[in-house]
Design brief:
Strand content: 25-35%
Radius of gyration: 18 Å
Number of helices: 4
CATH topology of the largest domain: SMI1/KNR4-like
CATH class of the largest domain: Alpha Beta
Oligomer: single chain
Distance between the termini: 30 Å
Helix content: 10-25%
Number of strands: 12
Structural class: alpha+beta
Shape: globular
């Protein structure tokens, strides 16, 4: 198990997104009420011209507002939101649409790192994905990687994990049943593996019995 504290966020972003192309843009004084880890993320991410996220989107710093003691800073199109507690700014809360806020097991610095690893898998130059992988294949698929000891999210459903290797990141979680009420499919996982270079995914071609979706430029082997 990899301790999240062992992962250096800046180095990770450089590896996966390339070197920054601009200097940091400090936030204006009226946004300095935001907690330091969140300010650090906004200033750090401003160094790249493209967004560092794809599935979820950070709210613009100037648009973050307090509502019932929470300040939403991250949203995804399906209606899931993440917020900080304005009185305890290291505490992160999440909710689906208008459900009740639930406190995350991760404090803000770990959450932001977790999100960076989760998102990079969908921004990578090469990836393979399958929404239904039998458990017997997971040891081979995950062999080049080690699980990162992140706390658990409710999104997209409980049980998702992140694995990290040399030039590889994987998001692994319970597969969904193919009928209502869309519970977990016992014995199956959804798998999304990304790489900094297509050749790092060649080993997956040797795993028979899985129908992979691929990045347009990673269909090799």
């Amino acid at each position: 198990m990899i301790d999240p504290l062992e992962i250096e966020l800046v180095r990770f972003l450089h590896t996966w997104h390339g070197p920054p192309i601009a200097p940091r843009e400090p936030l204006p004084s009226e946004q300095l009420w935001l907690p330091e880890p969140l300010r650090e993320w906004y200033e750090l991410s401003s160094q790249w011209s493209n967004s560092l996220t794809d599935i979820k989107m950070f709210c613009a710093p100037g648009e973050i507002r307090e509502e019932d003691g929470k300040a939403i800073f991250l949203e995804e199109p399906g209606g899931h939101s993440w917020a900080i507690d304005v009185n305890n700014q290291m505490d992160v809360y999440e909710r689906q649409l208008n459900d009740r806020w639930e406190k995350s097991s991760e404090e803000l610095p770990e959450f932001l790192l977790h999100n960076a690893l989760n998102e990079v898998a969908y921004k990578a130059p090469a990836w393979r994905s399958s929404d239904r992988v039998a458990g017997e294949y997971l040891p081979v698929i995950l062999a080049p990687m080690i699980e990162v000891g992140f706390g658990e999210w409710q999104w997209p459903r409980p049980g998702h994990r992140v694995f990290l290797g040399a030039g590889l990141v994987a998001n692994i979680g319970p597969a969904s049943e193919i009928h209502w009420p869309w519970g977990n499919a016992p014995g199956y996982s959804e798998v999304h593996i990304a790489a900094t270079a297509p050749e790092l995914l060649i080993y997956l071609s040797k795993v028979s019995g899985i129908r992979w979706s691929t990045h347009p430029y990673s269909d090799i082997g």
